[in-house]
Design a protein that fits this description.
Blueprint (H helix, E strand, L loop, with lengths): L1 E3 L12 E8 L2 E5 L2 E5 L3 E5 L5 E5 L7 E7 L1 H7 L18 E3 L2 H18 L6 H17 L7 E2 L5 H14 L16 H8 L3 H12 L3 H19 L4 H7 L5 H12 L3 H5 L3
Helix pairs in contact: 1-3, 2-3, 4-6, 5-6, 8-9
Organism: Hymenobacter ruricola
Protein name: AraC family transcriptional regulator
InterPro entries: Homeodomain-like_sf, HTH_AraC, Tscrpt_reg_AraC-type_HTH
């Protein structure tokens, strides 16, 4: 967590989830296929699975406030007993911006100041405190009306679903470490994360791109597998696990089906 005295930078696909308390400034938040004018105090949630960027409005003041970044596992611990898929932070198609009145601004500023204090303390249970405060922020936002967005580009329902799917697929890559959590594996995983029925997802993607959802996923997995085999020394089993395959044999079968070569033969060509 940090005190922010600058315009928020462009999205990094490996960033954590974030909660931003905007106190001053005039900026536009471009979030997935939507944009928001953030020109007054607001609580803003950004999901690491959704590409976003902040753009300073011409002639506007730089953004000032606080930002709290955290991992998905920390979020799960903070939100026990609450469906994360229904929370403001977890919905790819959710509303990330909530404007604040003066009383809400003062109250939430105090929460962020306490979080900064607790983070820097030697209290042995400070992470429990931080989880409680994060949970409080999420519950506070759930009671606020979301800000209105405007579409970045006009889209049909099928285009909107497809754009969200392709966005979610894109931010799964590149794979940076074998210890990272596995990627979403199949069309059902993506549909669940997007909160749509898998049949609706498949129908929209095929209509817009001419290719089934599984083909898009397979292409990205094959390309990433090739990169990892060529440019890392990770064991094939680690690559298989990181790409969402339960067993190295499943990965080897998949890779050969799409490339005509086994992973080891691809890595060490004759």
């Amino acid at each position: 967590m940090e005190d922010v005295r600058r315009v928020m930078g462009a999205f990094s696909r490996r960033d954590h989830f974030k909660v931003v308390l905007v106190l001053e400034g005039a900026n536009e938040l471009h979030y997935a296929t939507r944009s928001y004018a953030v020109d007054r105090p607001a609580l803003v949630f950004t999901n690491r699975l959704v590409p976003y960027s902040w753009e300073l409005v011409e002639g506007g003041a730089e953004q000032q406030g606080y930002v709290c970044g955290f991992t998905e596992s920390f979020l799960h611990s903070a939100m026990r007993g609450v469906s994360l898929k229904e929370s403001v932070l977890y919905k790819v198609d959710g509303n990330p911006v909530y404007f604040l009145n003066d009383e809400q601004r003062r109250y939430l500023t105090e929460v962020f100041v306490r979080m900064l204090r607790d983070q820097d303390s030697d209290y042995p249970h400070k992470h429990d405190l931080l989880r409680s405060q994060l949970s409080l922020l999420i519950h506070e936002a759930a009671q606020l009306p979301p800000a209105r967005s405007y579409p970045a580009v006009p889209t049909t329902a099928a285009e909107r679903i497809t754009n969200l799917f392709l966005t979610l697929l894109d931010v799964q890559f590149p794979v940076t470490a074998p210890s990272d959590e596995p990627l979403l594996k199949n069309a059902q995983d993506y549909a669940d994360r997007l909160a749509v029925h898998v049949n609706s997802l498949n129908r929209a993607v095929k209509e817009v791109t001419g290719k089934p959802t599984t083909a898009h996923i397979a292409e990205r997995l094959v390309n990433e597998a090739k990169m990892l085999l060529q440019h890392t020394d990770w064991p094939v089993a680690d690559i298989a696990d990181r790409l969402g395959f339960g067993y190295a044999t499943y990965f080897a079968r998949f890779f050969k089906q799409h490339t005509g070569s086994t992973p080891l033969a691809f890595r060490h060509p004759a």
